[in-house]
């Protein structure tokens, strides 16, 4: 249950990073680096990243972001399956 809670918390963090970056992009302010966004996504933040990308229309045209998002979502799905299959 702890791992599931951490997974949810990390996806909230990742979602927040994308939302903050989009807000800063609109205002022309200092941005969160793409590397930070990609790493947070790759570390099991794919679900939060995909949701944020679709809500805020952020980074949706960049293929490498999409690849990392969906790869991470697949990994998270496997983790969730393994956590709750018992």
Report the span from N to C terminus: 12 Å
Report the average pLDDT across residues.
Answer: 94
Structural class: mainly alpha
Provide the helix percentage.
Answer: over 70%
Order of helices and strands: HHHH
Rg (CA only): 13 Å
Number of helix segments? Answer: 4
Uncertain residue ranges: none
- Estimate the global geometry from the Cα principal axes: elongated
Give a short account of the largest sheet.
none
Share in β-strands: under 5%
Please provide the count of β strands.
0
Number of domains: 1
GO molecular function: nucleic acid binding
Organism: Pseudolactococcus plantarum
Keywords: Membrane, Transmembrane, Transmembrane helix
Transmembrane segments: 35-56, 63-84
Q: Could you describe the 3D structure shown?
A:
With 86 residues, this protein is an all-alpha fold. The protein has one domain (2-84). It is built from four helices and no strands. The protein is elongated. The mean pLDDT is 94.
């Amino acid at each position: 249950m702890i791992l599931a809670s951490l997974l949810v918390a990390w996806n909230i963090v990742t979602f927040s990073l994308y939302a903050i970056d989009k807000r800063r992009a609109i205002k022309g302010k200092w941005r969160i680096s793409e590397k930070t966004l990609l790493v947070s996504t790759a570390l099991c933040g794919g679900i939060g990243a995909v949701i944020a990308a679709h809500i805020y229309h952020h980074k949706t045209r960049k293929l490498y972001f999409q690849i990392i998002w969906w790869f991470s979502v697949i990994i998270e799905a496997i983790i969730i399956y393994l956590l709750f299959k018992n």
